[in-house]
Design brief:
Layout (H helix, E strand, L loop, with lengths): L2 H10 L3 H4 L8 H10 L13 E7 L2 E7 L16 E9 L7 E10 L5 E6 L7 E8 L2 E2 L3 E4 L9 E6 L10 H8 L4 E4 L25 H11 L3 H9 L1 E4 L17 H16 L18 E5 L3 E5 L19 H12 L5 E6 L23 H14 L4 E5 L5 E6 L12 E5 L10 H14 L3 E5 L4 E7 L3 E9 L9 E10 L5 E3 L10 E2 L2
Parallel strand pairs: 1-11, 9-10, 10-11, 13-14, 14-15, 15-17
Antiparallel strand pairs: 1-2, 2-5, 3-4, 3-6, 6-7, 6-8, 9-19, 12-13, 16-17, 16-18, 18-23, 19-20, 20-21, 21-22
Length: 515
């Protein structure tokens, strides 16, 4: 058998744990062949990793691509020069005839031949199409949208989080690509840093990652999922991160020189592979994530960074935000317009006592009790209304009342937190969920809903009167074309804190519902 047939046979036999570790020693071409034999696919060179757009504003959006004829090669090993000119074009039509902006940007080996083009002079609330050209080839077509200005009657967007490559295909992202959306928010765990899992679906193609080259290769592997590239090409994204973009449960301010080198490598690779708009003239080594963006007069989005500035957990004066970001968030609350207020939050904000109530998961905001109470008390005293917190990380769906003091059942409800299912990352098993869902409900009076047996994403429909969350779930994460359905829907009415489940979906399966 030739190598490709051998790899296919191993995949069919469920022996991926034997195949994938070998690819760490393969040439870039052989590593790509192994990935493709096990289900990955790439766009035509040199735009193998696709295109994307991000951080939409009323007159501007960032366009992204990376030249990588060989996805698993170092920049210096690519059949490219040190610097390659990349042309870009933005138009009002799919055929790219009604051009509104165009230009040329250098792609340097220093940043792995990635480009980030902040396109200005666009019109608010408009859909645009774009493409890149380099080395005589043109990329796939991308679609993006600017934020509206002024009065807005509706918005429709989605969140995604936790897409562990070995644990399932990205049918959820395929669903997002096919939705009619204004934008997508990714809430973190875009990649995972550990080595092969022995998965019989697909697996990581090398050991745990530490260096810039390692992180680049891991991003290239994940971009081999066609659904991920399709979701990027279909919609503009807002981005934050959690821990696995670097290493599990890390604190950005802790660790010695080896860890700081690893963190810098991870941050650079993250930037090289995503449509992120930097602040000012420099991006690296410390990437600015937190920002406020508005979708007309309908909603204000605050994107939080809960990793880069955090201290160790469980300290009396511990911080998850860092002093600068905390001051910024308080000012955002103080200056908030009369609108929906949405926080993009990678780690659960609400208290979550484990079954029996004897412990909390302190990598979340539960490890920073003083700061959480300070921030939420500031929300309360400011009089801020219509707060909705959108969260990832837990690989399960939760709906929680947001309260300044979770141990006081008389503490006022300030808003609602929706924690979404993961794209593919494994949750607790069905028996654990069935047994412990009611116990978590009993230990957490603010918990309204828990469902942990499914995978998917959330879609939000927002009007001036109501904020609706549709929990989209897939049938089978082993199937890259798995069907998508709506498990249930929750609503929040403007001016009234707290969510309620739609009567039409209230009989859907769940492991806990509060009466």
């Amino acid at each position: 058998m030739n190598r490709r047939d051998l790899l296919k046979a191993a995949g069919a036999a469920g022996a991926l744990n034997l195949v994938w570790p070998l690819s760490a020693g393969l040439s870039p071409a052989q590593a790509r062949e192994a990935a493709e034999a096990l289900g990955s696919a790439y766009d035509e060179a040199p735009f193998t990793l696709g295109v994307g757009s991000g951080d939409p504003q009323p007159t501007s959006v960032v366009l992204w691509t990376r030249l990588a004829p060989e996805p698993f090669a170092e920049p210096g090993e690519q059949p490219l020069g040190e610097v390659v000119d990349v042309r870009w074009v933005v138009a009002e039509d799919r055929e790219l005839r009604r051009v509104v902006a165009r230009g040329t940007v250098p792609a340097s080996a220093t940043l792995a031949h990635s480009v980030h083009v902040p396109v200005g002079g666009l019109r608010p609330g408009r859909t645009y199409w774009y493409a890149f050209t380099a080395l005589g080839r043109t990329s796939r077509l991308g679609r993006t949208r600017t934020a509206p200005a002024g009065h807005v009657r509706s918005a429709r967007f989605a969140t995604a989080n936790c897409q562990n490559y070995p644990q399932g295909h990205y049918a959820a992202l395929r669903g997002i690509a096919r939705e009619e959306l204004d934008f997508v928010i990714h809430l973190g765990d875009y990649i995972y840093e550990h080595g092969p899992e022995g998965s019989d679906i697909r697996d990581h193609n090398g050991p745990a990652i530490y260096t810039l080259h390692d992180y680049r290769m891991r991003h290239a592997l994940y971009k081999g999922d066609p659904s991920l590239r399709a979701a990027h090409a279909a919609h503009p994204w807002f981005l934050t991160w959690d821990d696995h973009e670097v290493v599990n449960d890390y604190s950005g301010t802790g660790g010695g020189a080896p860890f700081m080198r690893r963190r810098a490598a991870a941050y650079q690779a993250w930037y090289e592979h995503l449509p992120h708009r930097g602040a000012g003239d420099s991006v690296l080594p410390d990437i600015d994530i937190h920002r406020v963006r508005r979708w007309g007069d309908l909603l204000e989005l605050a994107v939080l960074d809960l990793r880069q500035y955090r201290s160790a957990q469980n300290l009396a004066d511990g911080t998850i935000l860092g002093a600068g970001q905390k001051a910024w968030l308080k000012k955002t609350v103080d200056r908030a317009p009369d609108t929906w207020h949405v926080w993009a939050n990678s780690i659960m904000l609400s208290q979550l006592r484990g079954p029996g109530g004897g412990f909390m998961f302190t990598d979340q905001w539960d490890g920073f009790l003083g700061e959480r109470k300070e921030v939420l008390e500031h929300v309360r005293t400011s009089g801020l209304e219509d707060l909705v917190v959108l969260t990832g990380d837990w690989h399960s769906a939760f709906v929680d009342d947001v309260r300044p003091d979770y141990d006081d059942t008389e503490s006022p409800v300030l808003g609602t937190e929706f924690t979404a299912h993961s794209v593919s990352s494994s949750a607790y098993d069905a028996q654990w969920n069935a047994t412990n869902g009611p116990l978590m409900g009993a230990a957490n009076p603010h918990l309204q809903y828990f469902e942990g047996n499914r995978y998917g994403y959330d879609v939000y429909e927002v009007t001036p009167e109501r904020f609706s969350t549709h929990m989209r779930v897939i049938d089978d994460r082993r199937d890259p074309a798995s069907a998508v359905s709506t498990l249930t829907t929750f609503h929040v009415d403007r001016g009234r804190a707290g969510a309620y489940e739609d009567p039409a979906t209230k009989s859907s399966p769940a492991q806990y519902r509060r009466d």
